[in-house]
Specification:
Low-confidence stretches: none
Order of helices and strands: EHEEHEHEHHEHHHE
Strand content: 15-25%
Number of strands: 7
Shape: globular
Structural class: alpha/beta
Distance between the termini: 28 Å
Mean pLDDT: 96
CATH architecture: 3-Layer(aba) Sandwich
Number of domains: 1
Length: 246
């Protein structure tokens, strides 16, 4: 991507959760290529090409540590133009066997910290406003089996984003969500992708190509930039045409 059209991201402060690998790492690399000043949190930095960003080791379920990392990022990079909430865990569960502890752990990583990152971000943005981008998933739209705690959280992310968009719109803070389809990250390929499952999923997509982490970058750049200045409270599906909305 050339960067044309995203000039306002050059020098802008952007904070990404879960930026050490997978989709998050692709976003960090893409934002750096636009000239943004990027900080990201993760348990570890496991992919290359992230050296130009500020890495702050953090367990996002520790809200105090997450807020401290966001403050450190703003101290280093300036007032926050965009928050990208991406950290998640799509662990599979048999619903009949799910424990209360497992449920709470899934909500902590997939929903709770999203809200508290948003809460902190809105106080770190300048008077000119900013953009909050919350990653959801099409899994809740199609009712994916074995993912009840995850799909519940991702439906909640979309509803939460719409409420916050209305609450903070008067301060020029935009809040949107992105719902990816099945993205072929290394984690997905190692744990969940089988030839049979992949072929069946590909058959349902309009575009017959495997989605890659980099395929989410364009949507994030658009929502983070001023090109989307009048877009808020929306959920943008990026899934090669499996889910039809509208």
């Amino acid at each position: 991507m050339s960067g044309k059209g995203f000039d306002d991201l050059r020098g802008a402060s952007v904070f990404v959760t879960g930026g050490g690998s997978g989709i998050g790492a692709a976003l960090v690399r893409g934002l750096l290529a636009q000239g943004a000043r990027v900080a990201f949190v993760d348990l570890a930095r496991s992919e290359s090409g992230l050296e130009g960003a500020l890495f702050l080791p953090c367990d996002v379920t520790d809200i105090a540590s997450l807020h401290a990392a966001m403050e450190a990022a703003v101290t280093a990079n300036g007032p926050l133009k965009a928050l990208v909430n991406n950290a998640a865990n799509d662990m599979r569960h048999v619903s009949a066997d799910l424990t209360e502890t497992e449920w709470d752990a899934m909500q902590a990583i997939n929903l709770k910290h999203y809200f508290f990152a948003c809460q902190k971000a809105q106080g770190l943005m300048p008077e000119s406003g900013g953009s909050i981008i919350n990653f959801s998933s099409t899994s809740y739209m199609i009712g994916s089996v074995g993912l009840a705690p995850y799909t519940a959280a991702n439906a909640g992310i979309v509803g939460m984003s719409r409420s916050l968009a209305r609450e903070w719109g008067g301060r020029r803070i935009r809040v949107n969500s992105i719902a990816p389809g099945w993205v072929m990250t290394e984690k997905q390929k190692a744990r969940w992708v089988t030839p049979e499952a992949f072929a069946a999923h590909l058959e349902r997509q309009c575009l017959k190509e495997a989605m890659q982490p980099e395929d989410l970058l364009g949507a994030v750049l658009f929502l983070a930039s001023d090109l989307s200045r009048m877009v808020t409270g929306q959920c943008l599906v990026v899934d090669a045409g499996l889910v039809v909305t509208g």
